[in-house]
Specification:
Number of strands: 9
Strand order of the largest sheet: 4-1-6-9
Structural class: mainly beta
Number of helices: 0
Helix content: under 10%
Mean pLDDT: 77
Strand content: over 45%
Shape: globular
Largest sheet: 4 strands, antiparallel
Oligomer: single chain
Order of helices and strands: EEEEEEEEE
Amino acid sequence: FDRHEKAKITADFPLHIEIKDDASDFYAGDGTNEVLTEHTHYASKSDGYCLGPLLGDGSGVRAEFYDLNNIFGLNVQTYDSDTTSIVNLANWAFADHRPATDLQADGHSNGDESVIVEFRPTCTCG
């Protein structure tokens, strides 16, 4: 089962983030404004990777996912390390935004789709 994607993570500030999928798929920002990644997913129904930490000052990052092969869509989640909780922010499927002729019969991407996601962190003051 061949599922993979590439990503270009960019920001207006030096990136000191970590991106991890599996032990073999680990990328770290080295202070540049762009990190390129490539991931292969072996789970048949779900898999993903973590990107962080994001700063609490309102600065964000852009993730361009491209060369998406056999991917159904994106699910963006946040993780709160204080409460160890995960919150689903958005579910996005190619079938909702692309003509059926551009996708495989089951709604998965066929290798040439791309998606750009803007991540803008928020902070709570108390």
